[in-house]
Write a structure and sequence with these properties.
Length: 149
């Protein structure tokens, strides 16, 4: 049986350059999360972008393990000329929560068309897909896939 999985996404910082923090808390169904790896597949809406060069730099400094999946990606394009993109992120176990993983992803706002309204634009970041692999020893491996609906 599967227990509850709690997914929380937070956008940190203000302005055009922000950080997306993804936290995942698992219930009691997985006994030893120390043997597990959690891969997060996050779709990035056209109004945002992730800089692949920044991700490479963060990987080199061991700050985050993330890679762009999308090809032909233009970080300079405004949102009305952009497409949704996709990022894979390996989450790390949270040192303050035994049943938790977290991942950090820097995101940047794209320029939008001018409009005469209040000057604010909303961008929706959907829940990611979660893929987990656990090596339980003695040839026993556990896979978990949670897809957004």
């Amino acid at each position: 049986t599967c227990s509850e999985i709690i997914l929380r996404q937070e956008v940190l910082k203000d302005g055009f350059h922000r950080d997306l923090l993804i936290k995942v808390k698992f219930g009691e169904s997985i006994e030893d999360l120390q043997t597990c790896r959690l891969l997060i597949k996050q779709d990035i809406p056209a109004g945002l972008f992730v800089d692949p060069y920044e991700l490479a730099s963060l990987r080199e400094r061991n700050i985050t393990e993330a890679v762009m999946v999308s090809e032909n990606f233009d970080i300079e394009a405004p949102n009305y000329l952009s497409k949704e993109s996709e990022v894979l992120i390996y989450a790390r176990q949270d040192s303050q929560c035994i049943d938790c993983f977290q991942a950090f992803l820097p995101v940047h706002y794209r320029y939008h068309r001018p409009h005469s309204h209040d000057g604010e634009t909303s961008i929706v970041v959907n829940h990611p897909d979660l893929l987990m692999f656990c090596d339980q020893g003695e040839g026993c491996r556990c896979f978990l896939r949670v897809r957004k609906e």
